[in-house]
Amino acid sequence: MIEQIGINAGLVWNLLNETGKQSVKEVKKLTKIKTEKDVFAALGWLAKEGKVAFDENDGEIFVSLI
Asked: How many domains does the chain have?
């Protein structure tokens, strides 16, 4: 499971590096990560490494690289 979280974190990082700020919904859609839970696990990994910032707008969570 930890290996898959790391793989997903790489997918998320690459997406954000290429496209910039995205909503969590868009991250899930564009990376094709299966569940929102898996997206948040990947984001947690990146957050722990200090690589992402979060922003909430009208109840929707957005994420970008730092």
From this structure: 1
Structural domain boundaries, residue 45:
2-65
pLDDT above 90: percentage of residues in the chain: 100
- What CATH number did the domain enclosing 46 receive? 1.10.10.10
pTM beyond 0.90, yes or no: yes
Between the alpha carbon of residue 23 and those of residues 3, 9, 55, 59, the distances in Å are: 24, 15, 9, 11
Distance between CA 29 and CA 21 in Å, rounded? 14
pLDDT digits (tens, 9 = 90+) for 19-50: 999 999 999 999 999 999 999 999 999 999 99
User: 65 forms bridges with which residues in the sheet?
Assistant: 52
Q: 53 has which bridge partners?
A: 64
